[in-house]
Design brief:
The protein has about 625 residues and is an alpha+beta fold. Among the domains are: about 5-140 and about 145-235, no CATH class; about 585-618, no CATH class. Helix content is about 40%, strand content about 15%. It has 22 helices and 19 strands. It starts with 7 loop residues before the first helix and ends in a 12-residue tail after the last helix.
């Protein structure tokens, strides 16, 4: 353990103190004041909680970086002529060490802070390491810190490809930076051994500790931190709902469901489908909590947009909260809006828009399975996903105001009638904008929440795992592809004993029926994107691996509609391309957003997986 004075700089840096637990808002209010002396620090429960809140403040500082790196390198987001130089570098996959969005500094701040807090908890509350001791709020805080540290490493390794392992004895950002900047072995000369009956004046000896830099790749990070969470965590998340009557508290901090989401996400990324499914199923099958994270009509149809207006424990699993009234803001609106004072530096790609505008509701087909070339479209249905797409995930703005949705419906109908010229007039001279972080916001709010995990995302990750997960039951190999389809379409994967009506990811917004749900079978029709006419078909008879890949394609496409611009797109593409051992799959999708003269260059660049990472630690 270090002398307590070594903790003080990071404690005072992180602490967002509080005096009363009236609400989540007051809990995070930086205007409140508290004065702690060295002999009093960590003597009071609320001081522990205050320091933990400071660590959430560091997580807040990461959200802009996570969104830009997770989306701008993917196929759904691109730059405008107003983009700053750092965004242009990321867009071009030519990122310099000075790039502010690529800097690992905030990851190291969070790792150092969690190292600090974990160390203090282990030394001052040793019962948290005893699996037989009763669970207390200190155990729950310990779980929060361990989850936060694992999450920091997991995100960092997905960005950088490898990350230096920061020894737990390094508990300040100054120590961490000195360690990272040292050539060879770093000497941590302040490791102190104390007599067992005290720690302030009973120093026995000072032992210099030699720390050698080790770099963990994705496999090592996932192996180390899944093992740590499974082995050390007894409970996660201190819920103050009983004191402050703010139900959003539970999902504004790391909690059991958030930890299971992280574990499942890490295992899926590592290719362990059985363990990934195990943790995702813990979340979506929750009879003891009234089937809380199942997808029913709570956020169905027009209510879907309410996911982004408030924090709601029926959908939100872990969300980083912002509120301008308490100086908790971010730059999302600055990035995306063309309205003054914002800068409109990033916008949706054409492909992102087509994902919503070329989906058709309630179409019907006269199918001829034996002679599929004779199959015909009977009724083309109505084009456009207006619950998740226009007016909430994206918008067309003219003079700073969104065009009326009825006009956009008319535009899509004209396209379906092949009247492209008239349709183009409707969106002439408009700004195409990401609207997910501006919906229900005033122009100066700048305090949209950042969702780390939510129910629909976990359903889609589980569906992805089910595509390839096969298991042996009584000598028969079974697969879960039908469950993957049900999760996306209509929620039929749930037990009939469920007391809530399940709708599925598409079903809750009206696209999960027998006609307009996703379908994968022997004969798979290819449709014209604008009029929905059948233009071709894919015959997968006897080709189960081809069927799996097509189903996976459709799930990833659905995730683009459900979760565009939420920070995960590039990593979704990476995960699938690695599973298929086919970097061209990612390269093809991402390169399509570039101008014709640049497209081939980006495609060839992304054929090399090394270029998927920011090689900061070379």
């Amino acid at each position: 353990m270090k002398r307590l004075k070594k903790y003080l700089p990071i404690i005072f840096l992180l602490a967002v103190p509080f005096l009363f637990l009236n609400s989540c808002k007051e809990f995070l209010d930086p205007e409140q004041d508290i004065n702690l002396t060295e002999d009093k620090i960590y003597d009071d429960w609320y001081e522990y909680r205050s320091v933990a809140m400071g660590m959430y403040g560091i997580q807040q500082q990461l959200v802009e970086q996570l969104l830009i790196l997770g989306e701008l390198r993917g196929d759904l987001l691109t730059i405008t002529e107003n983009a700053d130089a750092d965004m242009v570098e990321i867009y071009n996959f030519s990122i310099s060490p000075e790039n502010k969005y690529a800097s690992p500094t905030n990851f190291f701040k969070l790792i150092a802070a969690t190292n600090n807090f974990i160390k203090v908890l282990e030394e001052k509350r040793p019962e948290i390491k005893d699996p037989k001791s009763p669970i207390s709020n200190y155990d729950r805080l310990y779980g929060e810190a361990l989850c936060m540290r694992a999450w920091a490493y997991f995100n960092a390794v997905r960005i950088y490809g490898k990350v230096p392992f920061i020894h737990e004895g390094l508990t300040t950002i100054e120590e961490t930076e000195a360690f990272l900047n040292t050539e060879g072995v770093y000497i941590d000369s302040l490791s102190i051994t104390y007599a067992k009956d005290g720690y302030r004046n009973d120093t026995v000896r000072i032992n210099p500790v030699q720390l050698e830099k080790q770099y963990y790749d994705q496999r090592l990070v996932i192996d180390y931190f899944t093992n740590e969470l499974e082995r050390k965590v007894k409970a996660v998340g201190v819920n103050h709902y009983m004191e402050n009557n703010d139900i959003s508290w539970e999902v504004s901090i790391w909690n059991t469901h958030a930890m299971n989401s992280l574990l499942g996400h890490m295992y899926l990324t590592d290719g362990d489908l059985a363990k990934a499914a195990h943790y995702f199923e813990k979340i979506i099958y929750l009879p003891s909590e009234n089937y809380r994270y199942q997808l029913d009509e709570s956020f169905g149809f027009t209510n879907w947009r309410n996911i982004f207006g408030n924090i709601d424990s029926r959908e939100h699993i872990f969300t980083l909260w912002f509120n301008k009234n308490y100086f908790q803001q971010n730059d999302f609106q600055t990035f995306f809006e063309p309205r003054t004072p914002h800068r409109y530096m990033l916008k949706p790609t054409r492909q992102a828009i087509l994902n919503w505008e070329t989906i058709f509701d309630n179409y019907t087909i006269s199918a001829n399975q034996s002679q599929p070339w004779k199959s015909r479209l009977n009724f083309k249905g109505m084009p456009g996903d207006f619950h998740r797409g226009y007016g909430v995930s994206y918008a067309y703005l003219r003079d700073g105001m969104p065009i009326d949705p009825m006009m956009i419906r008319g535009m899509l109908y004209l396209k379906s009638e092949n009247d492209l010229r008239t349709a183009a007039i409707i969106t002439e001279n408009v700004d195409t904008v990401v609207w997910k972080y501006s919906w229900n916001k005033d122009v100066y709010d700048m305090d949209a929440n950042y969702i780390v995990y939510r129910a629909a995302g976990i359903h889609l990750l589980l569906a992805e795992a089910y595509v390839y997960w096969a298991f042996n039951r009584g000598g028969v190999v079974l697969t879960f592809t039908s469950n993957a389809v049900n999760i996306v379409n209509n929620g039929a994967n749930y037990s009939q004993s469920s007391n809530r009506e399940q709708l599925g990811v598409r079903g809750r917004v009206g696209f999960g029926g027998s006609n307009d749900g996703i379908k994968v079978g022997n004969i798979n029709y290819v449709h014209d994107p604008f009029n929905n006419e059948i233009v071709d078909y894919i015959n997968l008879t006897g080709n189960f691996s081809g069927l799996q890949e097509l189903l996976e394609d459709k799930i990833i496409e659905e995730k683009a509609r459900e979760m565009a611009f939420e920070g995960e797109r590039f990593y979704d593409l990476m995960r699938v391309a690695k599973r298929r051992n086919d970097p061209s799959w990612l390269a093809e999708k991402v390169s399509q957003k570039y101008p014709e003269g640049q497209r081939e260059q980006i495609y060839n660049l992304l054929l090399d997986e090394n270029n998927w990472y920011i090689n900061y630690f070379e």
